Known about the structure:
Chain A has 627 residues and is an alpha/beta fold. Helix content of chain A is 30%, strand content 29%. Chain B has 302 residues and is of the alpha/beta class.
Amino acid sequence: MSAANKAKLDLQQFIEMESSKSMLKFITCGSVDDGKSTLIGRLLYDSQLLYDDQLEELKQDSKGRASTDEEIDFSLLVDGLAAEREQGITIDVAYRFFSTSKRKFIVADTPGHEQYTRNMATGASTADAAILLVDARLGVSTQTRRHAYILSLVGVKHILLAINKIDLKDYSRQLFEGICAEFESFAEKLGFSSIYTIPISALKGDNITTRSERMPWYEGQPLLTYLESLNPDKEDSVQFRFPVQRVTRPNLDFRGYAGTLVGGEITVGDEIMVAASLKRSRIKSIVTMDGNLPSAQKGDAVTLTLEDEIDISKGDVLHSPGEPLERSNQFQAHLIWMHEDPMLPERSYLLKIGTQTTSVQITDLKYTININTSEHLPATKIDLNGIAVCNFATAQAIAFDSYADNPETGAFILIDRISNNTVGAGMIDFGLHRGQNLSWQSFEINRDSRSRMKNQKPIVVWFTGLSASGKSTIADVLEQKLAAQNRHTYLLDGDNFRHGLNKDLGFTDADRVENIRRVAEVARLMADSGLIVMTAFISPFRRERRMAREIVGDIDFIEVFVDTSLEICEARDPKGMYAKARRGEIPNFTGISSAYEPPERADIHLDAGNRSAEELADEVLRQLQID
Amino acid sequence: MSTASHVHLQRLEAESIRILRQVATDFERPVLLYSVGKDSSVLLHLAMKAFYPAKPPFPLLHVDTTWKFREMIAFRDATVKRLGLELIVHTNPEGLAANTNPFTHGSSRYTDIMKTEALRQALDAGKYDAAIGGARRDEEKSRAKERVFSHRTKHHVWDPKNQRPELWSLYNTRINPDESMRVFPLSNWTETDIWAYIYLQDIPMSQLYLAAERPVVERDGDLLMLDDDRFPLNPGEKPKMRSIRFRTLGCYPLTAAIESTASTLAEVILEMRSSHTSERSGRLIDNDQAASMEKKKKEGYF
């Protein structure tokens, strides 16, 4: 046999061996200094996955570091970013790969600092199991509880509780059992399928790959053996779910729907239904570059063609007719907040679920959860790393399952409209059906007919600027000028609004957001009736002005920035408000103790300064070009 | 996949296809960074699969430093022709005019001008809002923390402390005007996975990955191949013919070869199994300063 042929034969054995391995994704978590990075480094080292050059670099780097007396500081292997290496802490999620003869592993190493809890939720969202590290000297800590709760919330079912640094506690069985008992009683209500407890020393290698001789009393598996044999038996969703990513139309003869099955399976000839339109058809073919398939399973990325030409686009979800998704524009969900800026109810965010993206608002912040005590706390906002239960309302109805039924169709992220950051991660509990039956009623007499009768095009002119910048005065003059042209108008004024419709609202950030939402809704209704609507509200936040623009929808929305400097406004101070605010008598006063975010691109920018209201109103009128 | 039993690779393949489709759907002007190496070959193969029976709805971009192995350029052109795809080749014109090369300018400055700066120029010129690359998390420490969808400012800067959390398979693809995204569909593949997939799918590869007699000089223990007569020899240095191959392909003066007799893909994979050095150790640019990859990435290097 030639060398090449022999190589081919060996290779086939190798590939067979490699491919017969299953894969386990797990996350390591615990408090700062519990030794997570050391444990992963130890696993890589003991499974001999380190190359010589990596080992040499590691030995070099380990010199002169105080964190260990050993020759090699394993934590250096996983602490990748330069900043972390300088500070000696882990600040982000790192993914590591190793394999044994039985299994391939992807490890998410996540930080223990409280402010980085979002990263832990990120790592947990794709994990089959978790190693939760506890420092034997400290026992179950607040962080341990927090992380266990997040694991349970995100649906990780299998917990390996590793009591680390047991060497520093004389390998004490009593201590080990005490910590385990405390954790188990706490975790009872968290719904894990299994909790396995192992006393280890990541630094010394006790109970990592082999059972330690220094703990003859421990009769369980060493850590690696446990990871190799764990059956994650995720209850795979059996209901067919296919979110459409793209419509593939290479030519007129082919129309396919590209996507990944995220639940169940499908066979050629099966009947399917589109979640939004309830249209039905049958699977004609399951197309891949390697040839058409008779059937496809959860996880497969394929392109489906159908027997009938029905209207399907990206964002649609296909399912079996007897197994529909929920469809609603309102639902309840658990939310993990992931950004420094707090979540404010009524603020508008983008929601991404599967291949669907839409506007969303939190309509009811029911409570936040103190995860150390499981206590429900009333709240008006959610801070970074906060966990809350909320009701949501989306602009368009979405198709979803509960997260417990299928994480792929029940998980969503929230995106900030300005920064585009991912600010929240949500898990849907259930749909709220009051939204489902509320559809927009269309009437015969519509905006067009009402506008024609008034012989004008309805618009919303949205004035924004500091208190005393001249918004109301300019709007007042503008309205008089419009009235003189026989225009039908209405002016919504901030102070007047707060005496009536919004008298239940204060001046906290959350209340300001709700204030603007109501104003925008009223402005829309009035413009829909055919009126030219002017609003004069400080409306200090960009997001809310953008939200107002969205609420107003297809009616023209003209943002007018009355740009008067704080000095001038403060000098005017017609109601003595600035003086009071300066004395600290008014909290949250815009410009003094609360921010004003000037528009980046106002439709009309009034360099107001000391110009007269008459002059400024004329400028607005000219730019509005009302014919 | 040719056989249904390769569960692990099937999952990786499906994940990559899903990511590629999302790029094409969510971005207006995506581009695939094609560097001719083995990872690029796998990436391109997956792109062909993701949009089948249509062609990938984005062009390929190759940043040509003019110091690539000649065989790489020939392979690149043959591949593009075979698949019927659009290829954009960019070389930094100022760098070219200044005759920037790794010998007189040093590897760090040369890489900065002919690779990092050239890439920024090409991305700006094409107004590309998403650049798809073949980097893997198992390659290097700072890559282990890279997102699948990795945000870049309008100056192509990566801020490793301010990365968006990436949960489930819900990738946040939103960017503001002038910003861009780097996308890494092979994030979860390992070197072993790449080779096994190339073998099973019979993906065409550059011959440089296979051992052959080639002219080399040895410097500081690194075997450097002489691809043309631009390679300046030190006094007394004489190239020798040795049987070598490459584990990774870059610019030829910066990519060290390994001594090997593995002249078939099967032999290469078996040899790799018993290897004791990581693949990037052949990349001389990684080692020229501490945390050098992270620094380069912040500046816009892939």
